[in-house]
Amino acid sequence: MADTIERHTIAVLVDNEAGVLARVIGLFSGRGYNIDSLTVAEIDPVNKVSRITVVTTGTPMIIEQIKAQLGRLVPVHKVHDLTDEGPHVERELALLKVKSKGDKRVESLRIADIYRARAIDSTGESFVFEISGSTEKIDAFIEILKPLGLVDVSRTGVVAIARGKGTL
Amino acid sequence: MAARQMQGAEIVIKALVDQGVEHVFGYPGGAVLPIYDALFKQNRLRHILVRQEGGAAHMAEGYARSTGKVGVILVTSGPGATNTVTGLTDALMDSIPIVCLTGQVPTHLIGNDAFQEADTTGITRACTKHNYLVKNIDDLALVMHEAFHVARSGRPGPVVIDLPKDILQGQGPYHGPDEFVPKRYKPKLKGDQTKIAEAVDLVANAKRPLFYCGGGVINSGPRASRLLTEFVRETGYPITLTLMGLGVYPANDDQYLGLVGMHGAYESNLAMHGCDVMINIGARFDDRVTGRLSAFSPNSKKIHVDIDPSSLNKTVRVDVPIVGDCASVLSDMLKLWREKKAKPDAKALKSWWTQINKWRSRKGFTYHQGDKLIKPQYAIDRLYAATRGKDVYITTEVGQHQMWAAQLFKFDKPNHWMTSGGLGTMGYGLPAAIGVQVAHPKALVIDIAGEASFMMNLQEMSTAAQYRLPVKVFIINNQYMGMIRQWQELLHGSRYSECYMDSLPDFVKLAESFGAVGLRAERPDQLDGVIAEMIKSDKAVIADIRVDPAENCFPMIPSGAAHNEILLGPDDKAARPISEEGMVLV
Fold first, then answer.
1. Between the CA of residue B385 and those of A55, B376, B379, B396, what are the distances in Å?
2. B111-155 tens-digit pLDDT
3. Which chain B residues are within 8 Å of A61, Cβ to Cβ?
4. Do A61 and B317 touch (CB under 8 A)?
5. CB A127 within 8 A of CB A97
6. Is residue B115 among the annotated active site residues?
7. Cβ B393 vs Cβ B419: under 8 Å
């Protein structure tokens, strides 16, 4: 097995209880694993289940360890490596604030249109854009907005789901 | 049927009793006063009052390790809880089932920096298998039962339940253990049958096989040790054990090669290096066993049985990983082995044993006992000789004495050897011995100690005195932190920085001050008499055995070295100087 660094997107179903996120994050920091992004929200209010999507990088042996370590946490019900398990879609949402006047202001609106971002707030000298898409797409949009007066960035991190009719 | 309403503190006590708990090791404080009041009003649970909460944690560990039951700790909030952290970490590393009840300030004060408040669940998250903060009394009873389930199932470990004082004083419903259904945490016990078949094939076709087994076999229960012994005997293969695994296979048996690892037997380590099939049952490829990973057992196919999936392929890549309980997998393997009527390659096995016996003839544990100074190894040899045939439980502290004890004391049964393996906690041995003695009042319980480690928790002599627990502390006294001195000698040009303790107490007088018996041996000819007197005494004993302060522990695989670079003794120079990389390792 080659020791190449791979990027994996892992979905984790957990009991939504106090401290569960701290357990997951503590596991990563305590064992020196990487977190590229992490998102969490309750997905089943009746059974109090939350879904954590974590994007991590490491050698295949480390990725295997991460999954095994997550799996042995008591409030963790399921661990799925979406990267390993077949095609899946990943999306991120970002809110981006641009502060500019004149040509730059117009240009930012035109670029937003190309990236299918929406302006959800505006003043005489600012816009807030909402954009969703792959991490790469958002990275590219941010790069283009930088010279156009980008002043504030808020990103959700990746959420992901498998393609097809299968479920976790 | 409506559940019975009880006070929170009574729910705690009732749940403990219903879980089969008989002994609790603890220390009172403001936040747990309701539990102490409930304890006072009952007679099912026996509380052992310790002198420091850290002692309670190690007592619970010793108790658990020697019985296979869950050890229980009861401490107050803040300092009570933080003092248990070392013991909890120790239990996590060595997979010891513990339930630790900690008091907490009332829920409405949490987060206010109240008196004796600490974020106990925050602090212990990384050193427990799981922890709870009970904020609703309706959850209390089921949390108690789940905690025991988590502590003892799968790979055992410590669980903390943080109990705010208002929860302990409030009224709530009691649910018995029969009402608890594990909805989560259901470890896999049965191994994958295809993998097991693959493993048995490998075992059957091995030319230079080796069983390498550890504490997982003990945790799986006595049946696992019996099955392992049967399997090893039917194959005729050699077996080596880790520090945590001593006792799962009879040490006096010819197929047993001895301890493996940094201070393990020469023949064990060379067999690990040279084997072609390694059968790892319940051991975890700890760095103290593997030495340099890139040179670890380079030509073997490896089978690894472990109940914890995260132990597989963690440091060493294995060919046949099997997730499952040792007893269950061993029983499946044995069944398949018998069905196959497997006949190992007798010729290959014979030449493997010839090779092993050549290694054995180097007698790596040899020492030279003169007539002036007591050699530490000799002290342990004589202790073993004097206790053979007795129901003897050994605990240790951490350091050279621990390694000599592991090398020379021979165990025939599991659960009779309690030592701090993973964490290496000095000060473990005395409280652990007290815990063992509480569980086995009639047994001979000996803490093979170093004087420096013993000093770390000697206050617990007072606990031994209070409960008339006749634990024996057998101090291998070399006046140094011997293992530190040894490393400074080998790695730091004999610059003995801060490893010598001046002003040690007079251990004989110290013993007497606790109402125990103090004994001392300074010359080899005094040793047997002191040991005999110690064993004979029905009181706690501190035996101060003054040993050669310069003795080092061999064999030794220096850090960052491979098994075949093992040093046999002081005259055996390392094949190459210990590398920078090796020096960085601990």
1. 59, 14, 10, 18
2. 999 999 999 999 999 999 999 999 999 999 999 999 999 999 999
3. 313, 317
4. yes
5. yes
6. yes
7. no
* Chain B nearest C-alpha distance from A163 (Å): 27
Give chain B positions within 8 Å (CB) of A46.
none
> How far is Cα B419 from Cα B398, in angstroms, rounded to an integer?
8
Chain position carrying tokens 């009793």: B17
Tell me how far apart the alpha carbons of residues B451 and B511 are, in angstroms, rounded to a whole number.
13
| CA R_g for chain B | 24
Cis amide bond preceding B555, omega within 30: yes
* Min Cα–Cα distance to chain A from B129, Å: 8
Has B483 been annotated as catalytic? yes
- Distance, in Å, from the CA atom of B72 to the CA atom of B100, rounded to the nearest integer, reads 6
Do A74 and B129 lie within an 8 Å CB cutoff?
yes
Q: In chain A, which residues have their Cβ closer than 8 Å to the Cβ of B184?
A: 15, 74-75, 77
Q: Rounded distance, CA B20 to CA B145, Å?
A: 11
Six-digit token string for B414: 């599991």
Complex ipTM: 0.92
Pairing status of strand A88-99 against strand A159-162: antiparallel
Q: Cα distance from B125 to chain A (closest Cα, Å)?
A: 7
**In angstroms, rounded to a whole number, what is the distance separating the alpha carbons of residues B473 and B476?**
9
Kindly state the tokens that stand for B553: 């522990």
Please state, in angstroms and rounded to a whole number, the distance separating the CA atoms of residues B433 and B552: 26
The SS3 assignment for A24 reads: helix
Chain B residue numbers touching A77 (CB-CB < 8 A): 184
Residue B68: φ, ψ to 5°: 80, 0
Distances from the Cα of B307 to the Cα of A59, B326, B421, angstroms:
24, 7, 19
| pTM of the predicted protein model | 0.95
* Interval B419-431: pLDDT, tens: 999 999 999 999 9
Among candidate residues B116, B169, B369, B526, the one labeled active-site is B116
Please give the Cα distance from B1 to B504 (Å, whole number): 63
**Residue B22 gets which letter from DSSP?**
-
CB B509, CB B484: distance < 8 Å:
no
Distance, in Å, from the CA atom of B581 to the CA atom of B333, rounded to the nearest integer, reads 40
Q: What is the dihedral of CA B372, B374, B378, B380, to 10 degrees?
A: 160
Cβ atoms of B400 and B408 within 8 Å: the answer is no
User: Do B450 and B482 touch, CB atoms closer than 8 A?
Assistant: yes
Residue B225 has pLDDT above 60, yes or no: yes
- The secondary element (H helix, E strand) that includes residue A30 is helix A20-30
